[in-house]
Amino acid sequence: MTDAPLTLDPATTAVVLIEYQNDFTSEGGALHDAVAPVMETTGMLPKTIELVEAARAAGATVMHAPITFAEGYNELSSHPYGILKGVVDGKAFVKGSWGAAIVDDLKPADGDIVIEGKRGLDTFASTNLDFILRSKGIKTLVLGGFLTNCCVESTMRTGYENGYQVYTLTDCTAATSQPEHDNAISYDYPMFSVPVAAEDVVAAFR
After folding, report:
1. Helices (H), 43-195
2. Computed from CA positions of residues 94, 100, 101, 102, in that sequence, does the dihedral angle turn out positive or negative?
3. What are the φ and ψ backbone dihedral angles of 157, each rounded to 5 degrees?
4. Which of 206, 205, 183 is nearest to 195 (CA)?
5. Which candidate among 52, 58, 82, 176 keeps its CA 20 to 30 Å from the CA of 199?
């Protein structure tokens, strides 16, 4: 956490919401049961909703980064392994499905940007995220979403490498276990970002 009050310039700040999709966020989602316990301990969904409302009101850029695949997952190897094997085995994030849809509570509003083409872990890797950020003069990223130690962390690392000021939300993230979540926040996040609580970002936007 930061010692001094956080200050953010809305004109050069983007809140990037990674995979707030029904398969993660909602009862009945393919991967929801795996992340639900950590979602509950962090209170990530209501905190994210409050933060996004504050960001929009302040004039900051709000970006959504969903991951989707065509039915059959032809974009991936025929022998996926690791986290993407779990996605395939769970039949998660199929384009056009309820599970792949952004949760209603965070449905993109007019003026929000939906990043298209995310097929892997790092939001920068297979999308035009960096182009959009630089075109809009964005210098600061505020990251939240799923998984704490996977897509959020991968995006955080590249944002750091690409020269952005990165803030990662400790309580607007969730992993498939509390130890994995806590480990990422304690040991990885401080190396590549400034870990912050949602309330600190909300206060900075007001």
Report:
1. 44-58, 83-89, 129-135, 151-161, 178-183, 189-192
2. negative
3. -65, -45
4. 183
5. 176
> Which stretches of the chain score pLDDT less than 50?
1-2
| CA 122 – CA 150 distance, rounded (Å) | 8
Q: Rounded to whole angstroms, how far apart are CA atoms 201 and 197?
A: 7
Give the tens place of pLDDT for each residue, 156-194: 999 999 999 999 999 999 999 999 999 999 999 999 999
Residue count of the chain: 206
Q: Which amino acid is at 153?
A: E
Rounded to whole angstroms, the Cα distance separating 39 from 129 reads: 26
| Encoded tokens for 39 | 């979602």
